[in-house]
């Protein structure tokens, strides 16, 4: 019996390891997101009337959260 889903059959515990290259790529995107976020915060402090800067900051936050989203998505794709 499979401990992860409660069904008979074999488990695929290597789903995390298979998703690791995707997580590393998304970590690089996350670092880019941090840089964009810092620049966006500085620009919004200098000129708070720029609405487009908030869109860039939201995009940067999405890039920062990318590794977690990708790992959750990838491990859900591996059947148990």
Could you name the key traits of this structure?
about 70% helix, about 80 residues, about 0% strand, single chain
Describe the model:
- The protein has 80 residues and is mainly alpha-helical.
- The chain has one domain.
- The protein is 71% helix and 0% strand.
- The chain is built from four helices and no strands.
- It has helices at 15-18, 20-46, 51-64, 66-77.
- Helix 2 packs antiparallel against helix 3 (51-64) and helix 2 packs antiparallel against helix 4 (66-77).
- The longest helix has 27 residues, at 20-46.
- The mean pLDDT is 74.
Query: Strand count, sense and closure of the main sheet?
Result: none
Number of domains: 1
Radius of gyration: 18 Å
Please give the share of residues in helix: over 70%
β-sheet strand percentage: under 5%
Amino-to-carboxy terminus distance: 11 Å
Number of helices: 4
Write down the oligomeric state.
single chain
Q: Averaged pLDDT, please? A: 74
User: How many runs of DSSP E, i.e. beta strands?
Assistant: 0
Extract low-pLDDT stretches: none
Envelope shape: elongated
Structural class: mainly alpha
Provide the succession of SSEs.
HHHH
Task: Walk me through the topology.
Blueprint: H1 15-18, H2 20-46, H3 51-64, H4 66-77
Give a brief outline of the structure.
This protein is mainly α. It is built from four helices and no strands.
């Amino acid at each position: 019996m499979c401990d992860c889903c409660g069904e008979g059959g074999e488990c695929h515990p290597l789903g995390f390891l298979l998703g690791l290259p995707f997580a590393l790529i998304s970590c690089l995107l996350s670092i880019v997101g941090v840089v964009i976020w810092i620049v966006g915060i500085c620009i919004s402090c200098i000129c708070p009337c720029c609405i487009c800067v908030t869109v860039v900051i939201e995009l940067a936050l999405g890039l920062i959260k990318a590794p977690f989203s990708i790992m959750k998505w990838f491990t859900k794709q591996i059947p148990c």
